[in-house]
Amino acid sequence: MLKTFRIGGIHPPENKLSGHKAIENIPLPAQAIVFLSQHIGVPAVPVVEKGDQVRVGTLLAKSGGFVSSNIHSPVSGKIFKIDSVADSSGYKRPAVLINVEGDVWEDTIDRTDTLKKECHFSSKEILEKIAVAGIVGMGGATFPTQVKLLPPPGTKAEVLIINGVECEPYLTSDHALMLEKGEEIMVGISILMKAVLVDRAIIGIENNKKDALELFEKLSRNYPGITVQSLKVQYPQGGEKQLIDALIRRQVPGGKLPVAVGAIVQNVATAYAVYEAVQKNKPLIERVVTITGKKLGKPCNVRARIGTPVGELIDYAGGMPDGTAKIILGGPMMGKALTGTEIPVGKGSSGVLLIPSPEAQRKEMRNCIRCAKCVSACPMGLIPSYLMSLMEFNELKLAAKNAITDCIECGSCSYICPANRPLLDYIRLGKGKVIKK
Amino acid sequence: MLKQLIVSPSPHIHSGDSIEKKMYGVFVALIPAFLVSLLYFGLGALIVTAVSIASCVLFEFLIQKFLIKGKITIFDGSAILTGLLLAFNLPSNLPVWIVVIGASVAIGIGKMSFGGLGNNIFNPALVGRVFLLISFPAQMTTWPEPGFFPVTYADATTGATTLAMMKAHFGVLPSFVSMTLGKMGGSLGEVSAIALILGFVYMLWKKIITWHIPVSIVGTVFIFFTIVISAHTGEFAVKFPLYQVFSGGLLLGAIFMATDYVTSPMSKKGMLIYGFGIGILTSVIRRYGSYPEGVSFAVLIMNALTPLINTYFKPKRFGEVVKNG
Fold first, then answer.
1. Which CATH number does A23-109+283-359 carry?
2. Residue-wise burial string across A147-177, b where 16 or more C-beta atoms lie within 10 A, e elsewhere
3. Is B51 left (phi over 0), alpha (psi -120 to 50) or beta?
4. What b-and-e string marks burial along A49-66, b requiring 16 or more CB atoms within 10 Å of the CB?
5. Can you spell out the DSSP letters for A169-206?
6. Looking at chain B, which residue has its C-alpha nearest residue A332?
7. Which site in A65, A365, B178, B297 is 20 to 30 Å from A305, CA atoms measured?
8. What is the fold, at CATH topology level, of the domain defined by A123-280?
9. Where along chain A do its domains lie?
């Protein structure tokens, strides 16, 4: 039976233009831009200097605190400079710029394709290896994985949930990875189970990826404890709290972590990165990215090094179509609109989406007609229209009382609003203000 | 590539839904009922409807152009819909000048004085209708006999509504079949149960409204009269409660008037309570009040309570009640 989450949800057109396309390796960029903060938390501290020669996998920057992550060189060559350049948020942030020379890898990395199933490491050793490899949540949230796998004292994980939902329209990078690296992902999941000391894992995959469902059902027969659950297509099912609700019928209370209901959630791409880190000694230096757009010549899934400017990805996929008005890093619902093509792929970049002119423009905002579409769409059971009015009058206390901080910023309310009201813009602002207070 | 990129916060796509789509969706849902009224009330129905819509749009235009001096929004469909719904709540032989007064009150007082679409507390069409009912009680309660594409207008032969007959215990009640088809006296849009239910199904299918408000209103009225009549006569009554549901403005009110977005609650729980309130008030007015008909008053009273319902009946938040397993 198909499962799904219990509150709200929408179903935007899927537009999976690059579905069922094999992953292609994209040529190396001439210069890689590697940000020191590609994760939530403290930026990493650089350990290289201008002029240093680096190889693929050389540590560029060390984790800067508990919630932080190592950054490795995705290319080989010479450090051009360490400077502040604009990132996907539009703000200037410190980054290491590397002029690419050849493709020389660190010797410790096992570059072969042979599947390595056996893992003899202890939980602690696995967590250590994940931390060293600089792995973060690759679904977009980019929370350092070793931290997420270590529940706070007094809590205990019962089940590992693997997110293969990919509910964002257009994106197919996880789907492509699941089809090509199924066995590796299964090993990655087993390693994660060992790391968090649970004997049960559930992989949630939406019903629009039948081939991936079939494959994983077949694979899971050889992995006791791992089951696959097919899910009804519904956005935002890939949201951590929604996925937990869909799979194990437990709702994480507001302000709490998933482990409060005994669950730890990891993305399939993260599971694959964990496999590579633990079994192949490979740090997180590349990822699968979907390059897509209705007018794009060749929508595709590519394996790109971190730090490759999105412009090179777009050129690979047929070049920038005429009339492109918005470049989005990520999906159309939660991704970030970029200020230029020089901005690079980061650890959490699952896609590059090009939106042509009329669609990229927001329509004029009208009066709220209280149709309650946003109320039915909100997966957190909030009242977006009311929260927006509260923020128009800067009513922070009432907004806090009405759980504005529960908002997961999925964008369903703004998407559905017939009056084109920028509900999420106001709620996002309000969230920030309420949290600061 | 363009020289300038658009940079805005997510989400970057929109459903394409609009106020117009919603309004014209309701418009389409009202077409069956309008065709039935043309069939039974002919020219009169056409004149009243045309005048009502035209004057609602005109008044909105005049107010926006000369009083507010703001944006003209007459094409968002809401003034047209108010006009159509007002006409549906009027007898088809109502003189044109009374229709115009009704439209001016509906738009001027019911809608624009509150700040236009989205800000009004009461359903504008019902404000207009109730104003006329109180100001012109004679004209508002004289109904033409249903004919077959009649071309007479104001001088048509008149008859009583089913509810009035039931209330005063006179006349021959129409058969159940003519009631569902709409061959009975009444306001021009309220007579045919089948046409109204067809509109209801269309709006459910198009996800314009949910079932909560109409079903809770009709259910409450039916159960109320089943209990009251059964207790009164000492035997289980079904016919009279059914007549209550299928006659008068109940279905029109429950499906099209009470479900007005602006003036009805936003949470499902709130909608059920609102519907229950309308059902009880309608039943009490019909059974114990001096008017045979009570839907308009019931809806307006519950409109006034809507902000309160919105405050106390919010949707269930995620994680509020943790159900394990």
1. 3.10.20.600
2. bbbbbeeeeebebbbbbbbbbbbbbbbbbbb
3. alpha
4. eeebebbbbbbbbebbee
5. SS--HHHHHHHHSHHHHHHHHHHHHHHHT-S-EEEEEE
6. B12
7. A65
8. Rossmann fold (3.40.50)
9. 23-109+283-359, 123-280, 373-436
According to DSSP, residue A345 is labeled P
Q: Is A33 in contact with A71 (CB distance < 8 Å)?
A: no
Determine contact, residues A266/A239, Cβ cutoff 8 Å.
no
* Chain A contact set for B6 (CB, 8 A): 325-326, 337, 360-361
Cβ neighbors of A154 (< 8 A, separation 6 or more) are none
Structure tokens of B325? 């397993």
The answer to whether the CB atoms of A414 and B11 lie below 8 A apart is yes
Q: Are B17 and A416 in contact (CB under 8 A)?
A: yes
Q: Which two tokens stand for residue A307?
A: 């730090």
**Residue A223 to chain B, least CA–CA distance (Å):** 24
Could you tell me which of A197, A240, A336, A114 has the C-alpha nearest to residue B319?
A: A240
Interface of B with A (CB under 8 A): 1-2, 5-15, 17-19, 21-22, 76, 116-119, 210, 261-262, 264, 266-267, 310, 314-325
DSSP string, B195-259: HHHHHHHHHHHTTSS-SHHHHHHHHHHHHHHHHHHHHHHSS---HHHHHHHHSTTHHHIIIIITT
User: Looking at chain A, which residue has its C-alpha nearest residue B271?
Assistant: A372
**Are B300 and B106 within 8 A, CB to CB?**
no
Rounded to a whole number of angstroms, the distance from the CA of B256 to the nearest CA of chain A is 14
> What are φ and ψ of residue A329, in 5° steps?
-95, 110
Residues 6+ apart with CB under 8 A from B27: B77, B80, B81, B84
Task: pLDDT tens for chain A, 437 residues: list them.
Answer: 789 999 999 999 999 999 989 999 999 999 999 999 999 999 999 999 999 999 999 999 999 899 999 999 999 999 999 999 999 988 999 999 999 999 999 999 999 989 999 899 999 999 999 999 999 999 888 999 999 999 888 888 999 999 999 999 999 999 999 999 999 999 999 999 999 999 999 999 999 999 999 999 999 999 999 999 999 999 999 999 999 999 999 999 988 899 999 999 999 999 999 999 999 999 999 999 999 999 999 999 999 999 999 999 999 999 999 889 999 999 999 999 999 999 999 999 999 999 998 889 899 999 999 999 999 999 999 999 999 999 999 999 999 999 999 999 999 999 999 999 999 999 999 999 999 88
User: Smallest CA–CA separation between B317 and chain A, in Å?
Assistant: 4
Measured CA to CA, the distance from residue A92 to residue A78 in angstroms comes to: 22
In CATH terms, is domain B19-312 a member of 1.10.3430? yes
Closest by CA position to A354, among listed A288, A306, A298: A298
Distance from CA of B132 to the nearest CA of A (A): 26
pTM for the predicted model, two decimal places: 0.91
Point out the residue among A355, A370, A381 whose CB comes nearest to the CB of B266: A370
- Cβ <8 Å between B1 and A169: no
The SS3 assignment for B144 reads: strand
- Give the Cα separation of B100 and B89 in Å (integer): 14
From A57, A41, A46, A43, select the one nearest A144 (Cα to Cα): A41
Tell me if A419 and B9 make a contact (CB, 8 A cut-off): no
